[in-house]
Automatic annotation (TrEMBL):
Protein name: Regulator of microtubule dynamics protein 1
An example Gene Ontology CC term for this record: spindle microtubule
Organism: Opisthocomus hoazin (Hoatzin)
Tree of life domain: Eukaryota
Subunit field text: Interacts with microtubules.
Subcellular location per the Swiss-Prot or TrEMBL entry: Cytoplasm, Cytoskeleton
Keywords: Cytoplasm, Cytoskeleton, Repeat, TPR repeat
GO molecular function, one term: microtubule binding
PANTHER family in the record: REGULATOR OF MICROTUBULE DYNAMICS PROTEIN (PTHR16056), REGULATOR OF MICROTUBULE DYNAMICS PROTEIN 1 (PTHR16056:SF16)
């Protein structure tokens, strides 16, 4: 009888434990589904705000999720931080702080998902920005790493016109690099990175083929590169397109 009561009590406890375990599994499942749904919801809101040019609202939305493990959220936060830093209303000290924040978010996005093309792209962009605060030696020193991440982004997504454009900018910058910067590069690398205006032109055209008329700055740099190559007829064609481009952003107005 004692044994039977003991077994019955054990069975009741086991059943109770089983029910608690099943309830925990069910709640955990709901939590996972809810978390997944929430991430998708935040990304949808973020993309809407980005498309609407609501830079400050976008940053405020995404910075709440800075501890997220989702690479898609993190690279968007890196981009939003950088975009906020670019605004004329942002103070010099805030620009610096946001630039370093953006790099950290992009780095974290890469750590979470190395196969995310946008994480590579924004890590390279943000790393380049840091050179504006740390000087030309750091900027040139990071140049090879920056290009590697742009190239990896293109490998992962060959249709992303913006990344192709940015490699064009990289080539253009090294093609027009002044002699004193070349001397710095020579002290940093056994074989310093170099490029030509022809190579830059190739990437700007590649970007235009991937997504025609996608970016005012690509049109501008096609014109500028043709000028460097002394082809004024083609320069005029692309500079006219840049001039007539509808100005949606501050950058478009500057272009």
């Amino acid at each position: 009888q004692v044994l039977r009561k003991g077994l019955q009590r054990g069975l009741v406890l086991s059943t109770g434990s089983f029910l608690v375990y099943e309830a925990h599994k069910l709640i955990s499942g709901f939590a996972e589904v809810h978390a997944s749904f929430k991430v998708e919801e935040v990304i949808e809101q973020a993309d809407y705000l980005y498309g609407s040019g609501e830079t400050e609202k976008l940053y405020q939305l995404l910075v709440q999720h800075k501890n997220s493990d989702d690479a898609e959220l993190l690279w968007r936060l890196a981009r939003a931080s950088r975009d906020l830093a670019q605004l004329s209303s942002t103070s010099a000290e805030e620009k610096r702080q946001l630039a370093y924040e953006a790099l950290e978010y992009a780095k974290k996005a890469l750590e979470k998902n190395e196969s995310n093309f946008a994480a590579h792209k924004w890590y390279a962009i943000c790393l380049s920005d840091i050179g504006d605060f740390e000087g030309i030696k750091i900027k040139i020193g990071n140049a090879v790493v920056i290009k590697e991440h742009f190239q990896r982004a293109i490998e992962l997504n060959p249709k992303d016109a913006t990344t192709i454009h940015l490699i064009g900018i990289w080539c253009y910058s090294f093609a027009e690099m002044p002699w004193y910067q070349r001397k710095i590069a020579a002290t940093l690398f056994a074989t310093p990175p170099t490029s030509t205006f022809q190579e830059a032109l190739h990437y700007f055209h590649m970007a235009e083929e991937a997504d025609p008329n996608f970016y005012s700055k690509n049109l501008l740099f096609l014109g500028k590169t043709y000028l460097k190559l002394n082809n004024k007829k083609m320069a005029l064609l692309w500079l006219s397109k840049a001039k007539d481009y509808p100005a949606h952003t501050e950058e478009d107005k500057q272009v």
